[in-house]
Design a protein that fits this description.
Elements lengths: L1 H16 L10 E4 H8 L5 E6 L4 H12 L1 H6 L1 E9 L3 H8 L6 H4 L1 H4 L11 H14 L9 E6 L10 H9 L1 H14 L4 E7 L13 H8 L4 E6 L6 H10 L7 E4 L5 H6 L19 H15 L5 E4 L14 H4 L1 H15 L5 H7 L4 H4 L10
Parallel strand pairs: 2-5, 2-6, 3-4, 3-5, 6-8
Antiparallel strand pairs: 1-7, 7-8
Helix pairs in contact: 3-8, 10-11
Length: 370
């Protein structure tokens, strides 16, 4: 009898561990797609912090939307890597219509935040993957991707003074979009945005994540990616703890957990600014770097996305159009000069982004894209 009671108790405990919102004494690592979909049981919004250059993260986005369960239970995605002024073009493309490439390209290049534009293949592949999924679904069940950057016309922008207000205030457009198209219609959405946009540490006003949390407490579940430390020893120590995790995995809950404590071990840093000698650095700048370091570690996240060891992470290649279309390159160089005060140096660009198989598989490095 005692054995039977103990067996029932264990079975009940295991079942409770999988219930939505159930409290757990320790974080649990589950296959990453399962972890994201489980988060949608209790939250209408799930945010994935984007590292901006990590090819493995882009591959995960494709795998997630390609899973039949995503279209069946979520269906809406709001992305940072798309221009709202071209939403109708993207809608046509994702619904299978024939769209000329010079029109389609504007959906990710007429953005205001990226310098000088969205130029990584992973994002273009994402749109193509959603279109492929939608071709096998009836119209009413297709995935819709909302382009979260505010409308703008780059042909009218000639100075930093004209561009900067759009860049600084771009989170307001996205927050309003989520409010209008997702929350007001009782829908669910995956948000793919840069990590900084989920924290007050970003310095933007307003900030997407905090704005949504203030308007709808408990609505947003944020998953922060692991992409290594500045210190190789810290990579090795943390990844040894992850040896038994599935890859990729979502680890939750993160707040107050041993996993988060391991991410915050003394001497382990993530922000590239902390990899250099900080002696003599202005106190306010040092404080900002440490605040951002905490964010990159996931102190304000609900879960961690583990895509594998830092040594295996690779840089997503640059869109080949940069090498093939001289007029396009000149326009991107013009935008670069407006944003940061100098045109793109062709030789430097090629050195940093070699158009070769080896270049496309370049190791991400400890400081790339942070």
């Amino acid at each position: 009898m005692r054995a039977r009671v103990m067996g029932l108790f264990c079975a009940l405990a295991c079942a409770l561990a999988w219930l939505p919102g159930a409290a757990r004494a320790a974080p649990e690592a589950v296959p990453a797609i399962d972890g994201v979909l489980q988060a949608f049981r209790d939250h209408p919004l799930v945010g994935l912090g984007d590292n901006h250059v990590m090819a493995e993260q882009g591959a995960f986005y494709v795998a997630l939307v390609s899973d039949p369960r995503f279209a069946a239970t979520v269906r809406d995605v709001v992305v940072e890597f798309g221009a709202g002024s071209h939403q109708a073009v993207m809608d046509r493309y994702l619904n299978g219509e024939s769209v000329p490439y010079d029109q389609l390209r504007l959906t990710w290049t007429d953005t205001v935040g990226a310098i000088p534009t969205i130029n990584r293949i992973e994002y273009i592949h994402f749109f193509a993957a959603v279109r492929a999924v939608n071709m096998h679904l009836p119209a009413e069940k297709r995935i819709r991707v909302w382009l979260g950057q505010p409308p703008m016309d780059w042909s009218t922008i000639h100075s930093r003074a004209e561009q900067r207000p759009l860049s600084v205030g771009r989170d307001r457009f996205a927050a309003d979009l989520v409010e209008r198209e997702i929350m007001a219609k009782d829908r669910k959405a995956l948000l793919i945005w840069g990590q900084a946009h989920f924290t007050e540490a970003a310095g933007l006003s307003p900030v997407l994540g905090p704005t949504l949390r203030a308007a709808h407490p408990g609505s947003l579940y944020y998953i922060n990616p692991y992409f290594g430390f500045n210190e190789a020893a810290c990579d090795a120590d943390f990844e040894a703890r992850a040896a038994h995790w599935p890859t990729p995995a979502v680890i939750a809950p993160l707040k107050g957990s041993a996993t988060l404590k391991a991410m915050r071990q003394p001497g382990c840093t993530i922000d590239p600014g902390l990899a250099q000698d900080t002696k003599g650095m202005k106190p306010e700048l040092l404080a900002a770097l440490h605040a951002n370091d905490d964010h990159l570690a996931g102190v304000d996240a609900d879960a961690l996305l583990y895509l594998g060891k830092e040594a295996g992470m690779t840089v997503s290649p640059v869109d080949p159009v940069f090498y093939l279309d001289e007029a396009y390159f000149k326009e991107m160089s013009r935008r670069n000069e407006i944003m940061i005060g100098r045109p793109i140096d062709w030789a430097g660009f090629i050195a940093a982004n070699p158009p070769s198989v080896e270049g496309f598989d370049a190791h991400i490095g400890r400081h790339a894209g942070r």
